[in-house]
């Protein structure tokens, strides 16, 4: 069996240190055979399993490159097993494996990093304790958007007469079928990822990973494994935060994952939290004909977004019949004898009570660190003590260990997790990968949709940037009128010193898709003039972006 030097970033070489063994020596798995100085610290080369050294192909001081064979050994077992009692598994033995890149967690961070790393030639092992695809595919992005689409179809059918379509009777909702459809889509996507991982030769191990040291993890599953790796990426994501509201565990209370599998459609619901998840559920239930109340602690819904967007979605909610109580703290949830949920909250005017069939609590998620035994690897948490500390290259404080996605608590978005994963792989391979957070798009699937990217006017004010903004309304856009969706606006923010577009917010038809062109403009430092000089197709909702860019100069053509 050959023992090779693992990857040295940037295709560089390392210098071999003192040899601690000779031919014929008995070695145990994980014994350090030699240290190689890589310029980024020492990299130990370890025995992958118990055996006898049969050949030594390097000497002290020699230059060593990635993948170079340094030793040959005769292993005592082809796939040696180790006693696992030290790891407390209760099972007799664990299989010992070696890999170049080990990734813990197969959400959009982990599985994308795995496929990307494999495409770039790395031997990748991916560990997942639950379903492939993580929160995003199973209880997050995709399931919510499947329900959002069903709700939009129902709403469109209810409004069919506005389009000149005559239906024989009012449509009705079959929640069981909606949930079944969601499951079908979820399973199809999970199966697709399984196929992609296979096609790219990513080794997938099923089980829960815990660190044994800075370069090995124990995987507890149907089969137990001890996996040693040159580089490790932590991509364990996030979980629903436990919050301390009396009554939160009552049967009438759901979290977002439970709501996505609930085949009963309530007639009334109270949603705690007007963040992105809370507001998406508010509109989806409302579109399905449910009476919705939202209670929010902060002074406005979607408080992370531009103030005008918050105000606009609040108006849309009011017009749709959704009631939103802001500056309100939920004190307790009770269940009446007839299984009604009773939510007591307080605002500046005093205590109030809301009665509904169900309560949905949508107030935050926290990094998933449980059971990882990070301390055994020496991995530090961030200043808030929430999430793994990672720099812009996604490196943790421990050489060769990276962290990406929700577990870093930087930004809880699927596309950010994937992007960070690819950056981490690039950094492992050649020291180049780095994440720039100045043009990260954010989408909210309310009715109408919302999206934003880059800086808001408020951000510019705080940063002392001399800025201007240009707002153009959808009411002047022909395509939006054909869609019967004339509400909303596009707001662009420009840095006056450079003329560059530094931020954009959209509320209106197609907002989620339109944000990609704004992201391209911001990420590539385009000025308002360059956007204005670009040809936008007609008739499309994208023309509102063009008009907003013109707004910085001569003014929008279709808005006085
Ligand atoms: C209701 C909802 C809607 C959302 N909608 C959107 C949206 O529209 N757009 C968007 O960008 N984002 C959305 N998000 C957020 C998005 O889902 C997350 O940002 C994204 O999934 C994070 O990816 P990740 O890879 O970091 O972690 P996750 O997707 O959470 O995956 C982590 C994986 O690691 C596994 N794992 C954890 N610990 C271990 C261990 N010790 N051993 C082995 N495996 C382990 C978990 O089982 C999980 O599969 C939504 C989230 C929710 C809850």
Can you give a write-up of this model?
The chain is of the alpha/beta class. It contains 14 helices and 31 strands. Strands 9, 10, 11, 12, 13, 14, 15 and 26 form an eight-stranded mixed beta sheet that branches. α3 runs antiparallel to α4 and α3 packs parallel to α6 (276-287). Mean pLDDT is 94; it is low at 78-90. The structure holds flavin-adenine dinucleotide. Flavin-adenine dinucleotide binds next to β11, α2, α3, β13 and α9.
Brief sketch in words of this structure:
The protein contains 14 helices and 31 strands. The protein has 560 residues and is an alpha/beta fold. Helix 3 packs antiparallel against helix 4 and helix 3 runs parallel beside helix 6.
Helix and strand arrangement:
Elements: E1 2-4, E2 13-16, E3 26-27, E4 32-37, E5 42-46, E6 51-56, E7 63-65, E8 69-75, E9 81-83, E10 93-104, H1 110-119, E11 124-128, H2 134-138, H3 141-158, H4 175-199, E12 203-206, E13 208-213, E14 216-220, E15 225-234, E16 238-240, E17 253-254, H5 256-259, E18 268-272, H6 276-287, E19 291-295, H7 307-320, E20 323-325, E21 329-335, E22 341-347, E23 350-356, E24 358-361, E25 365-367, H8 374-377, E26 401-403, H9 414-430, E27 442-444, E28 450-454, H10 457-463, E29 467-473, H11 478-482, E30 488-495, E31 501-508, H12 511-523, H13 528-532, H14 543-550
Parallel strand pairs: 10-11, 10-15, 11-12, 15-26, 17-24, 18-19, 18-24, 19-20
Antiparallel strand pairs: 1-8, 2-4, 2-7, 3-6, 4-5, 6-8, 9-10, 13-14, 14-15, 16-25, 21-22, 22-23, 27-28, 28-31, 29-30, 30-31
Helix pairs in contact: 1-9, 3-4, 3-6
The structure holds flavin-adenine dinucleotide.
């Amino acid at each position: 069996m050959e023992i090779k030097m693992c990857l040295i970033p940037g295709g560089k070489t390392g210098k071999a240190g003192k040899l601690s063994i000779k031919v014929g020596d008995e070695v145990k798995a994980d014994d350090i055979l030699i240290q190689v100085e890589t310029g980024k610290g020492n990299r130990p080369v370890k025995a992958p399993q118990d055996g006898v050294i049969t050949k030594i192909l390097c000497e002290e001081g020699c230059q060593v490159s990635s993948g170079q064979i340094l030793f040959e050994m005769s292993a005592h077992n082809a796939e040696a097993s180790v006693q696992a009692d030290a790891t407390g598994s209760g099972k007799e033995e664990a299989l010992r494996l070696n890999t170049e890149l080990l990734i813990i967690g197969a959400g959009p961070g982990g599985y994308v990093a795995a496929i990307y790393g494999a495409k770039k030639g790395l031997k990748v092992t991916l560990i997942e304790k639950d379903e492939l695809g993580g929160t995003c595919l199973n209880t997050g992005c995709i399931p919510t958007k499947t329900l959002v689409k069903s709700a939009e179809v129902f709403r469109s059918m209810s409004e069919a007469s506005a389009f000149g379509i005559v239906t024989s009777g009012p449509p009705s909702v079959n929640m069981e079928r909606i949930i079944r459809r969601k499951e079908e889509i979820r399973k199809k996507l999970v199966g697709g990822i399984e196929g992609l991982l296979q096609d790219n030769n990513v080794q997938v191990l099923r089980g829960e990973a815990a660190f044994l040291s800075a370069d090995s993890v124990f995987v507890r599953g149907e089969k137990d494994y001890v996996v040693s790796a040159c580089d490790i990426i932590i991509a364990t994501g996030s979980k629903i935060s436990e919050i301390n509201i009396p009554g939160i565990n009552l049967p009438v209370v759901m979290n977002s994952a439970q709501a996505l599998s609930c085949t009963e459609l309530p007639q009334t619901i109270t949603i705690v939290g007007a963040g992105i998840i809370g507001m998406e559920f508010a509109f989806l239930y409302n579109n399905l004909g449910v009476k919705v109340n939202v209670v929010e602690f902060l002074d406005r819904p979607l408080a992370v977004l531009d103030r005008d967007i918050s105000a606009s979605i609040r108006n849309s909610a009011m017009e749709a019949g959704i009631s939103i109580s802001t500056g309100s703290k939920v004190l307790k949830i009770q269940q009446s004898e007839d299984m009604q949920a009773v939510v007591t909250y307080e605002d500046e005017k005093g205590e109030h009570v809301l009665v509904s069939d169900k309560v949905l609590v949508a107030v935050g998620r926290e990094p998933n660190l449980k059971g990882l035994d990070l301390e055994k690897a020496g991995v530090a948490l961030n200043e808030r003590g929430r999430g793994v500390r990672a720099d812009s290259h996604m490196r943790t404080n421990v050489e060769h260990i990276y962290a990406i996605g929700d577990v870093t608590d930087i930004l809880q978005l699927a596309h950010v997790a994937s992007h960070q994963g690819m950056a981490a792989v690039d950094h492992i391979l050649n020291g180049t990968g780095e994440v720039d957070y100045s043009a990260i798009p954010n989408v909210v699937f309310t009715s109408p949709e919302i999206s934003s990217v880059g800086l808001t006017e408020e951000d510019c004010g705080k940063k002392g940037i001399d800025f201007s903004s240009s707002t153009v309304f959808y009411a002047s856009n022909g395509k939006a009128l054909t869609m019967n969706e004339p509400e909303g606006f596009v707001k662009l923010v420009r840095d006056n010193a450079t003329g560059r577009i530094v931020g954009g917010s959209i509320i209106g038809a197609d907002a989620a898709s339109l944000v990609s062109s704004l992201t391209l403009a911001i990420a590539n430092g385009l000025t308002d003039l360059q956007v204005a000089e670009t040809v936008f197709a007609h008739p499309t909702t994208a023309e509102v972006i063009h008009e907003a860019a013109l707004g910085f100069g001569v003014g929008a053509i279709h808005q006085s």
